[in-house]
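Cross-check.
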Amino acid sequence: MTVDEVKNLLKIYYDIPQIIAEEWAAIRHCEAEKNEITLPPVNLSGMPGGKGMTGDRTANMALKNQARFYEKEEMCCQKKIADLTEKRNWLGVALGKLDPTDRYILELRYMGDQRNRKYTRRPTWKEIADKVNYSKSQVLERVRISLLQLAMMSDQIVFPGMIR
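Predicted model, tokenized:
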């Protein structure tokens, strides 16, 4: 994982449960829509069914493809859920390994307030430096080092029970 990918993950860290809930809603919607698809009966009499009758193989194949589309969409959503869960678990453990001051700086700059997700303005580096009693250049250096540490830890495997 690159430093920019780590930054993007930090920005959505607190939103991941909501994103996962939206993916589950999409899966439920696909299941409901898939269950609405009804295949017409096959015309076995050999007689033409008339205009608008869909008793032929071509129509059945076309309708079956719709079900495949929903199944493909569900698989895509499940993959996103697994990926987001894995990233959230990893980042939770990785942030726990950082110095508390470094984590606080990253939280202020990238993650925002966990309770108030309507976080619109990120504090400036000077404001963050004032909060942690460091100079702006020290804060920037600590962030640079912390992001590099997180990027280097990104190849570690984290199991679901390890989240902090």
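Residues 3-162 form one domain. Residues 57-96 form the longest helix (40 residues). Passed to J.P. for a second look.
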